[in-house]
Design brief:
252 residues, alpha/beta, Rossmann fold, 2 domains, five-stranded parallel beta sheet, ATP-binding, AAA+_ATPase, nucleotide-binding, DNAC/IstB-like
Length: 252
C-alpha cells in the first residue's frame, strides 16, 4: 500500500473510531479490494460498507433486546410443530409473527391445557417483536405480581406501572396455575388496565375465561380484567394433546 493509501486508511480508521462504527473499520479495506476487483462504483462501495455496519448494529440490538426480555429459553416459530394441534389457526399465528399487533397495541391471549405450546408461542412472538426493535419483557403471572407487590409495599406502584409501559410488549405466562389472593387480583387488574390501548400484552392461561373468576377469586374483578384484555385482542384456543405426553409415548 502506498503512503497515500496508508494515510487514507488511517483517516478512515480514525473516523470510524470517532463515529463508534467498528464494523466499518474492520471491513472497509477488504471491501475496497473487492470493489476494485469487481469494478464497483463509489456509491456501491459506500453502500456495502455502511450496510455491513447497519447489519451488525441491528443484530446487536436484537441480541440486547432478547437478553433484556429475560425469556426462560429461546423458542422460535420455525421450531414449533403443529402436529399435536390440528385445529390451531396457523394463518392467525403467521399474521401475528409479523408483529403488527404490537404496533397497533393489540393483545394476544393463548388458552389451552398444559403442554399445548402456549409458552413456546408466546416466547416466539416475543422474539419476533424484539427482532422488529420492540422492547419486550417476559415473566410468569406470579413473577409479575411479586414485582408489583414489592413496588406497592414501597409506595412505588404507579411509578413501576409507568416504567413497565416503556415496554411495547409484556408477556404474562401461566395465568390460572395459581390462585390469586384479593391483593394479587387487584394488582393483576391494574397491570392489565395500565396497558389498555397503550401497549400490548401476550397472556397464556390453562383456563377458559369462564373460569378466571376461580383464579382471581372474584367474578367481578375477572370480568373487568377480561373486558380490558380482549377489547383489542387475538384470542387463540389451543386444543390438543400435550406435546410432552406425545413425546413420552413415542419413546415407549
Amino acid at each position: 500500500m502506498s503512503a497515500t493509501g496508508k494515510d487514507t486508511a488511517g483517516q478512515i480508521t480514525f473516523c470510524a473510531r470517532e463515529l463508534k462504527t467498528p464494523v466499518i473499520a474492520d471491513t472497509f479495506a477488504t471491501l475496497g479490494d473487492q470493489a476494485r476487483t469487481e469494478g464497483w462504483t463509489h456509491e456501491e462501495y459506500l453502500a456495502a460498507v455502511l450496510g455491513r455496519q447497519v447489519a451488525s448494529r441491528t443484530a446487536n440490538g436484537t441480541r440486547m433486546r432478547i437478553s433484556a426480555a429475560h425469556f426462560p429459553a429461546v423458542k422460535t416459530l420455525e421450531d414449533f410443530t403443529f402436529e399435536h394441534l390440528p385445529a390451531a389457526p396457523r394463518d392467525v399465528i403467521a399474521h401475528l409473527a409479523t408483529t403488527t399487533f404490537v404496533a397497533r397495541r393489540e393483545n394476544v391471549v393463548l388458552l389451552g391445557p398444559p403442554g399445548t405450546g402456549k409458552t413456546h408461542l408466546a416466547i416466539a412472538m416475543g422474539i419476533k417483536a424484539a427482532e422488529a426493535a420492540f422492547p419486550v419483557a417476559f415473566d410468569s403471572a406470579n413473577g409479575w405480581l411479586t414485582r408489583l407487590s414489592d413496588a406497592h409495599e414501597r409506595g412505588n406502584l404507579e411509578r413501576e406501572l409507568r416504567r413497565l409501559n416503556r415496554y411495547r410488549l409484556l408477556i404474562i405466562d401461566e395465568v390460572g396455575y395459581l390462585r390469586f389472593d384479593p391483593a394479587a387480583a387487584a394488582l393483576f387488574f391494574q397491570l392489565i388496565a395500565s396497558r389498555y390501548e397503550t401497549g400490548s400484552v401476550i397472556v397464556t392461561s390453562n383456563l377458559p375465561f369462564s373460569r378466571w373468576g376461580e383464579t382471581l377469586g372474584d367474578d367481578v374483578v375477572a370480568a373487568a380484567t377480561i373486558d380490558r384484555l380482549v377489547h383489542h385482542a387475538h384470542v387463540i384456543p389451543l386444543d390438543g394433546d400435550s406435546y410432552r405426553t406425545r413425546a413420552h409415548r413415542k419413546t415407549k
